[in-house]
Amino acid sequence: MNAIHDTGCLVAGQWLTEGPRAERVGPYARQVVSRARTAQADDVTTALGYAQRSARTIARLAPATRADILERAAAAISERGEEFARLLALELGKPLKDGRGEVLRVADTLSVAAAEARRIGGEVLPVAGWARGVGNTALTQRAPAGPVLAITPFNAPANLLAHKLAASFAAGNTTIVKPPPQAPAVSTALVELLLDAGMPVEAVQVLHGGGEVGARLCAAPEIAVVSFTGGVAAGHAVAHAAGPKRVLLELGGNAATIVCEDADVAEAARVCARTGYSNSGQSCISVQRVYVQRSRFEAFADALTGEVKALAVGDPLDPATDVGSMVDDAAAERVVRWSAEAAGAGARITAGGSRDGAVMAPTVVVAPPRDARVVREEVFGALVAVLPYDGFDEVIEECNRSSYGLQAGIFTHDVRRILTAWRELEVGGLIVNGSSNFRLDHVPFGGVKDSGIGRESPRWMIEDFTVTKTLMLKGLTIWGDQ
C-alpha cells in the first residue's frame, strides 16, 4: 500500500488543508494515491486580491534574483528526480522512464527560464531617422504584465507547470496555478520545491478544483494573462470566460509523420514505435497518423508492428516498462472503441486493440478509411494509424486536412521535400528525420488552427507575460539634432 499524498491549497501565503477534499485514484494502482483540498469561492476571492496586491512586490525583484532562485530550483529537482518520477507513476500511470525524462526536462526548463530572466531588457529606438523624431530619444523596456493564471494539464503536469510558472516569475509576475485534478500531488510538490529554493510566497498561489474554479479565475479582472494547456473544447471555454485579456492556448493535436520512399524504414518504424506510445500516447504531439509512400507501405507496417509488440507494457513503477496506463478507464475504452470502428470499416489491427482496465495495449491500425475517427480526430492514446500515399503533393494535402496543426515529422533526405513540407504543412513545427513527437524546451512550441494561440518555451512565453513600455525623452538626444 502506497502512502496517500495529501495536498492543500496555497492562498495568500498560507497552505489551507482543512475543508473538502478530492481523491485521486491511481489508474494502475487502483487505489487512492493523493488527496487535494479543493478551493472554495472565498479562496478564489482571497487569492485574486492577494495576487493583485503582490504584483508590485514581485515586479520589483531584480532579474538576477529571480534567475538565482530558478537555478537553485533546477538543481534541487535534479536531486529529487526519483521522487517526482514515482509521483507521476502513481497519479497518472506514467512509466518511471517517462517520468524521469519529464523531470530532466523540468530542470532544463527552469534553467532556461533563469537564463532568459537575465536577458530581459529593451532597446533604443531610431526615432531620429524621421524628421519629427530629430532632437528626441525613445527607449523601451519589457515590464511585467501583471498576475498570470496558469492552468496545466495532466499529461505532463510537472514540465508544463514549470514552463508557465518559471516564465511568469522570470518576467516578474505573480502566478495563480490551477493544477489538473488528476495530478495534484506532483503539481504541489513542484511549487513547494520552488518555494524552498527561495521563490517568495507572493509569487505563487495554488488552487485545486474543477472547471468552475478555472472559469471564475479566467473571468476575474485581476488576472492579466491566462496561459492554458488542454483540450480544444476546454480551451474555447477558457477564451470565452477570459474575455478581452491576453490568452495563450496550447491545445490538441492530430500529429502526422510522413515516411518517404528514400527513408530508412527500419529506423522510422523504431522511432515511431518509441514516440507513438510513450506516456500511452497521451501527448498532443504523439505520433498518430503515419503516411508511408505506397512502395514502402507494407514493409513499414510490418516493421512498426514488430517494434510495437516488443514494447514492455504494465506496472509504471517497473523501470523496464515502456507503456503504463492511460489516465483512466474511460480514456482507454474510447481508444478501444475507435480502433474497433476502424476495423469494422476495413482497417487491419496488427497489434493491440484491447485494454486491461486503464492499460491500453499499444495498437497499430493499418489502412483505416480517411474519415475514421482514428484519422480525423485527436486520439490522445496508445494508437498509431498507418496509411499509404502515392504523390508528395497528395500527402501534404492529407496532413493538412486535419483541423489541428501543432507539429509534424518527416523521414527523408530530399532537401526539396523538406523545404516544401516546411512551407506547405499547416503546423507550428516540423521535425526532419524524426517523428512529430520531439520537443526541445528552449525552442518555440505551439500550433495553428485548433491547436492554439501563442508559443511556449521560456523566451517566447516571457514575451507574452510582459508588456512593452516606452520612454520618450523630448529635447534630449543621442542621435544629433541637426
The 3D shape can be described as globular
| Helix percentage | 25-40%
Total strands: 25
Structural category: alpha/beta
- Give the strand line-up of the largest sheet: 15-18-19-14-13-21-22
The DSSP helix count reads 15
Please tell me how large the radius of gyration is. 24 Å
Average pLDDT, all residues:
97
Low-confidence stretches: none
Description:
This protein is of the alpha/beta class. The chain is built from 15 helices and 25 strands. Helix 2 packs across helix 6 and helix 5 crosses helix 15. The longest helix has 24 residues. The protein is globular and about 75 Å long. The termini are far apart. The mean pLDDT is 97.
Question: What secondary-structure arrangement, pairings included, does this model have?
Answer:
Elements: E1 5-7, E2 9-11, E3 14-16, E4 21-25, E5 32-37, H1 41-59, H2 63-79, H3 81-92, H4 96-119, E6 122-125, E7 137-144, E8 148-151, H5 157-170, E9 175-178, H6 184-196, E10 204-206, H7 211-219, E11 225-229, H8 232-242, E12 246-250, E13 256-259, H9 265-276, E14 289-293, H10 297-309, H11 329-344, E15 348-351, E16 355-356, E17 359-360, E18 363-366, H12 373-376, E19 383-389, H13 392-400, E20 404-405, E21 407-411, H14 415-424, E22 429-432, E23 448-449, E24 452-453, H15 458-464, E25 466-473
Parallel strand pairs: 1-5, 8-9, 8-11, 9-10, 11-12, 13-14, 13-21, 14-19, 18-19, 21-22
Antiparallel strand pairs: 2-3, 4-5, 6-7, 7-25, 12-24, 15-18, 16-17, 20-23
Helix pairs in contact: 2-4, 2-6, 3-4, 3-6, 4-5, 5-15, 7-8, 9-10
